[in-house]
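Checklist before submission:
- one chain only
- standard amino acids only
- sequence pasted in full

Submission:
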Amino acid sequence: MSGFAAAGPPVVVLGVARSGTTLLREMLNHHSDLAIPSESYFLIALWDRFLHGDLEKLLADLAYATQVREWGVDPDAVRARLPGTADFPDVIRAVYECFAESRGKRRFGDKTPLYMLHLELLEHAFSRPVYVHIIRDVRDAALSYAAMPAGHPWGWLYPAGVADFACRWRRQVERARKFGSSVGPDRYVELRYEDLVLGPERRLHEVCARIGLTFEGSMSE
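Returned file contents:
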């Protein structure tokens, strides 16, 4: 069992692709007590594995998850943190705890735009996290999408064109807002990308106050 003592709930960054989620993640990651790794993607596959009731195979799959390896997380260290009867959130929490602890931090989070399509899974996997939903003007987000270079490594996740992108933007933003209403204002905060860029310190102060962090100047440098 781990001696890790979390300083607060996980922080999940929500946002449509090309909406500034990476910028926000970098800012939050500069906090001395919060560690948000690169995009995970593996939650969906692990959840499918767990639904079949095979915890051992789920743990074995961690060794083959590219992101887990890139984060420097040892699957054996994950296993050592698990209680006697582990469930899916226990496994996910152990993975992220290992990542955070290796960086000297007591709180963790996630930033993976693909999970905008799996909001209920986030709620279950991270056991009532707080959500920061960054929203960018659909016109600018679409232009950013259109400027993506050919052969982007995650290009298969993206829509077929700007019009399709705009339709997905609307569906995902509306779904996330409805989800935010269901979890309540104590665990869901919205942030405009344009406001963050124009006044990063002010907006980060507001976000930190909502998610239980004390703003640090390094976050906006």
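Reviewer check: The chain has a mean pLDDT of 90.
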